[in-house]
TrEMBL record:
Matching Pfam families: PseudoU_synth_2
Keywords: RNA-binding
Name of the featured protein: RNA pseudouridine synthase domain containing 2
PROSITE patterns, alphabetized: PSI_RLU (PS01129), S4 (PS50889)
Gene3D superfamilies associated with the record: Pseudouridine synthase (3.30.2350.10)
CDD domains the record matches: PseudoU_synth_ScRIB2
Length: 494
């Protein structure tokens, strides 16, 4: 017998009752007949009475896009330091989403099978039996239930995050209008992919008490240097205006392959995104964005240890002059194959299901992709001065109508004092946390596959790329960091 399904568009009653379908069952504490009759009466008041076999779906809740991360999120887990790395204790985390249009009429089992392949169907069945999968906040014990418009799904998982550099996140300026930090390499700016607590946003909230910040620009995960946040929406809009009017300048320092020519080199080639999941691009006439890593590769001087644009997957000439000689699909496959053979797939930040060939749905959660889009909106005009393959590049980004003084710069001496003090403080905290971590092993989850894997710690070279945002400058402010060790003239590569 065919059953008709009622959605929130047909029935706007605000209640959380459930009715059994002919394809699956939902757990419900209200099992007595009186409760069922009460539910039917409430639905009748909303427009009409549900037919036998119909399942009611409550209307979607209004979302508040302005909500930022708060103490509730910061206390999900804690950090510990070990072997020079910042690590996160595994924790339980709920992924939530409303039913997508393409899922309507399909069973939960079909959706997990086709679009969430990171885990096996056996895992999802066991997770459902333990109440970890919910529909409209009611545990689902049968994944054959048919999805309807506005269904709200919740999947609780045991989450592991990759370790990052244990170098302290130094706050250079906090003047009430902006927060400026010296971002260590290996840290994503915001939660994305496998990273949540090991991100700049969460560390500032958990350790510095700074929350509700507005991102002005981003840096790639492996890029270090000056990173700017606005304290208020008003300041954020003011800085955005400067970006649009090209009143801002970024200056980078990087170490590249080969000997870069003297004088100024200007590159204005358009760039096209090849993969949002990996977050990499190539020069293409149809492209519109700009990115320093791609332009250096185009000029024939890729960053020395760039895991994407310095890869041999691009061919013997590393796509110099934009000559690739293969399709985007072939290029992505070659890139994954090369890093797979070197056991360095983690440098691409690929989800496990894509690495293993069990590709899931495409997402825009790749930190690299989002960072590229923000970092490369600058015009391509760059001043370049090089000495023995050490290049200092200035990207003129954006200018603004407002000439009012917003911020004060921090001198290199002040920055050095802060860095040294932060290192000493962090060392003592790290030692104590490391001892605590060793004595208190984290709780393992019997359904979690990651708990059964022992992953080696990443080497320091895998956490650093030779690209550093040295200076961020506006009409009336300038923020600068110290040169990284690898950028100094007496530096020797291991």
């Amino acid at each position: 017998m065919e059953t008709k399904e009622t959605t929130a568009e047909e029935d706007s009653c605000d209640t959380d009752s459930t009715v059994t379908t002919n394809r699956g069952k939902r757990k419900n504490e209200e099992t007595d007949e009186a409760a069922k009759q009460g539910n039917r009466k409430r639905h009748k008041k909303c427009g009409r009475q549900l037919r036998p076999g119909e399942r009611y779906v409550p209307p979607p809740q209004k979302r508040n896009p302005g909500v930022s991360f708060s103490q509730e999120h910061f206390t999900e887990t804690s950090y510990y330091f070990e072997s020079g790395l910042r690590k996160v204790y595994p924790y339980y985390f709920a992924f939530t989403t409303y039913c997508k249009g393409r899922w309507i009429g399909k069973t939960l089992l079909e959706v997990f099978k086709s679009e969430f392949r990171a885990e096996s169907l056996d895992y999802y069945k066991k997770a459902a039996k333990e109440g970890r999968i919910k529909l409209n906040e009611t545990p689902v014990d049968d994944l054959n239930i048919i999805l309807k418009n506005n269904d709200f799904m919740r999947n609780t998982v045991h989450r592991h995050e990759p370790p990052v550099s244990g170098k302290p996140l130094e706050v250079l300026v906090d003047d009430g209008e902006v927060v400026v930090v010296d971002k260590p390499a290996s840290l994503p700016v915001h939660p994305c992919g496998r990273y949540r607590h090991n991100t700049v946003i969460f560390i500032l909230g958990k350790e510095k008490g700074l929350s509700g910040l507005h991102t002005v620009h981003r840096l790639d995960r492996l890029t270090s240097g000056v990173l700017l946040f606005a304290r208020t929406l008003e300041v954020s809009k003011k800085l955005d205006a400067m970006v649009r009017e090209r009143q801002l300048e970024k200056e980078y320092v990087c170490r590249v392959e080969g000997e870069f020519p003297e004088g100024e080199v200007v590159c204005e080639e358009p760039i096209l995104v090849v993969s949002f999941r990996v977050g990499f691009c190539r020069v293409d006439p149809k492209g519109r964005t700009h990115q320093i890593r791609v332009h250096l590769q185009f000029l024939g001087f890729p960053i020395l240890n760039d895991p994407i644009y310095g890869s041999s997957a691009w061919g013997p000439n590393r796509a110099k002059g934009g000559l690739v000689g293969m399709s985007d699909e072939e290029l992505l496959e070659a890139l994954i194959k090369e890093h797979s053979s070197k056991e360095s797939l983690h440098l691409l930040d690929l989800p496990d299901e894509e690495v293993s060939g069990k590709q899931g749905p495409k997402t825009d959660c790749s930190d690299g992709a989002q960072e590229h889009n923000d970092q490369i909106n600058a015009p391509a005009s760059s001043g370049v001065a090089c000495d023995d393959s050490l290049c200092k590049l200035t990207e003129e980004e954006v200018k603004a109508e407002d000439s009012q003084e917003l911020h004060k710069s921090t001198s290199a001496a002040e920055t050095a004092d802060k860095m040294n003090g932060a290192h000493k403080e962090n060392d003592s905290v790290s030692d104590e946390a490391s001892i605590t971590a060793k004595s208190n092993a984290f709780a393992r989850d019997h359904l979690c596959g990651e708990c059964k894997i022992v992953r080696p710690d990443p080497a320091e070279k895998d956490l650093i790329m030779y690209l550093h945002a040295l200076r961020y400058k506006g009409p009336d402010f300038e923020y600068t960091t110290q040169m990284p060790d690898w950028a100094k003239e007496d530096w020797l590569q291991d």
